[in-house]
Amino acid sequence: MSQKSQVIQLYKTLLHLGREYPQGYDYFRTRLKRVFMKNRETTDPKKIETMIMHGQYVVKELEALYMLKKYRTLKRRYYGDQS
């Protein structure tokens, strides 16, 4: 898979995950676009690979955030707020 297609796939994945972002989709989308546009002139393959790996890390962090939010919601629903 070429780096260009990896970057495009990463952007689409992040955009999809941004729909549930706590501060809102518009906030997430504008920040995401700004970051990708800031780095669009980068041509060094190693630097691009590093940025792709960082983006994949962010994807995993967002997924963990959403899973934690879902877990807390279910816990509150079934066990009440016991704190």
From TrEMBL:
One of its GO terms (cellular component) is mitochondrion. It comes from the Eukaryota. One of its GO terms (biological process) is respiratory electron transport chain. InterPro entries: Complex1_LYR_ETFRF1_LYRM5, ETFRF1. PANTHER family: ELECTRON TRANSFER FLAVOPROTEIN REGULATORY FACTOR 1, GROWTH HORMONE-INDUCIBLE SOLUBLE PROTEIN-RELATED. Belongs to the complex I LYR family. This is LYR motif-containing protein 5. It comes from Gryllus longicercus. The lineage of its organism: Eukaryota, Metazoa, Ecdysozoa, Arthropoda, Hexapoda.
